[in-house]
TrEMBL record:
Coiled-coil region(s): none
Family statement drawn from the similarity comment of this UniProt entry: Belongs to the peptidase C40 family.
Species this protein is from: Heyndrickxia acidicola
Name used for this protein in its record: C40 family peptidase
Domain NlpC/P60, first and last residues per copy: 29-148
Amino acid sequence: MLKKIFAALALAAMLGSVAPVLSQASTSTYTRSKAISVAESNLGVPYVWGGMSPRGFDCSGLVKYSYNVAGKYLPRTAGDMFYVGYRTHSLTRGDLVFFATIRAEKPTHVGIYIGNNEFINAASSRGVSIASLSNPYWKPRFVGANHI
């Protein structure tokens, strides 16, 4: 009888620990999709160094703003965002992609992966725009991606 009680308690504990993980996964998918939608709604917004609003964005300002509207807080700079989430080599929509545009220990540019080898970012030359990871400028500067 005691074994049955312990087995029931163990099963209840396992099920209780699985439910939050499942809901967290679906929330994460929603958050990433929402962040992409927010970023896409700002296509064409001009690049403004230090910009964090639809009046003008820099790269990390766009990513921070998009995820903030989606309900996820991120640090301010690309270098600090590099330590959020976990590294991934298998990109999924909403992952953060990082680039070293100058010689630096930390990445100096960040964008949001949107699928099909493309990412959305705020580039000084084009404002908020979509670029390819295969682009001759971005490809050699790619330093990694994080799953949020």
